[in-house]
Every structure is written in C-alpha cells, then in structure tokens.
Write a structure and sequence with these properties.
With about 180 residues, the protein is of the alpha+beta class. Helix content is about 15%, strand content about 35%. The chain is built from 2 helices and 10 strands.
C-alpha cells in the first residue's frame, strides 16, 4: 500500500508525463514553421489554473518517450526516427535502428530503458517490420464490413517486433531483435 506522500509523488509523475505528451502533441501539429517554434508560447486555461506551453521543437508523429538518467528525453517518431531532446535542442537522429515499416498504424513505437540502464545502457523499443517472406499478392483486398475508408494501397505484410540495443552516444550498438 502506498503512503500519502508516495501517492502524491506518483500523481506528480503522471501529471508531468501528461504535460510532456501534450507538449509533444503540440510540437507535432505542424502548424508552426521550424523557425518560429522557439518564439511560440501558448497559454492554456484549465480548471486548476493556466498552463504555459512553450513550443521547443518540431517532431514527426512522436509516439513514445522516456527520460534518460541524465534528464535528457529519448523520443520515438513513428516514421522511424529515435531522437534525444537535451538542453533545449532536438539532437540528430540516433543511428543503428533496424529497418522500420511505417504505414498507417505501423512504425517506430514505444521505447523503454532497461532497469539496469545506468550500468548497461540498454534500451528496448517496439516497431513494425516487414515479414521475411512476402505473399504473392498485389495488395490486400480488405474486408468490406470494415468500411470504405480503409487504405489498402500498402501490400507489405508486417508484424510487430521488439528489439534492444546499447545506446552509445548517438548510436544503437549490438542490436538484437527479441
């Protein structure tokens, strides 16, 4: 059972994550040009008071994020980029990721640190990959019961995968699909 102080700390952590997610959603809207992002501030009125939202970077479909022990933020972008946000800047894309199939619900998804990250620098991430053997079809016919608004133009058979690798500087090393 959590103590009152532990519950408050847990609530604050959840609120911080929600605010970070909201910040990333605002950043990914594409409404602002890259050159205007740093100067953009938005005030959101809530029942609890005003929240000041500062636009810090432009991201393409941010999906998952996790804090590194040194307070840098590791962020996945669904099209297949893994980024680090540090000291007010979005750094270069992390190298060493596997081939990621990005379409509709697929792409680079969540990212988590190994429980012993401080000692081993391992990160885990989920993503979509193409099947090794592709069916001999031009495209999926789809099921008309799902409606006429489905996109069946992508004929690549895909599946979910989880991998891990060692984060060394700006690169994933010793990549292992698990």
């Amino acid at each position: 059972m959590l103590s009152h102080q532990d519950k408050n700390t847990s609530r604050k952590n959840i609120l911080l994550k929600i605010l970070c997610i909201q910040m990333i959603v605002f950043l990914s809207n594409g409404v602002l040009g890259q050159d205007k992002i740093k100067d953009s501030v938005e005030i959101i009125k809530t029942k609890s008071g005003e929240i000041k939202v500062e636009h810090l970077a432009a991201l393409a479909e941010p999906w998952g994020m996790t804090w590194l022990p040194d307070n840098r933020l590791l962020i996945t972008e669904k099209p297949g980029r893994l980024r680090i946000y540090s000291h007010g800047k979005l750094l270069e894309t992390i190298k060493g990721l596997p081939k990621i199939e990005y379409h509709a619900q697929g792409g680079l998804l969540d990212v988590k640190l190994d429980p012993d990250f401080i000692n081993n620098n391992l990160i885990y991430f989920s993503y979509t990959e193409a099947a090794e053997k592709q069916p001999n079809i031009e495209r999926d016919e789809g099921d008309p019961r799902l409606g006429k608004f489905n996109d069946f133009s992508d004929a690549v058979l895909k599946g979910g995968a989880v991998a891990r690798g060692k984060l060394v500087g700006n690169e994933i090393q010793n990549l292992e699909v698990i």
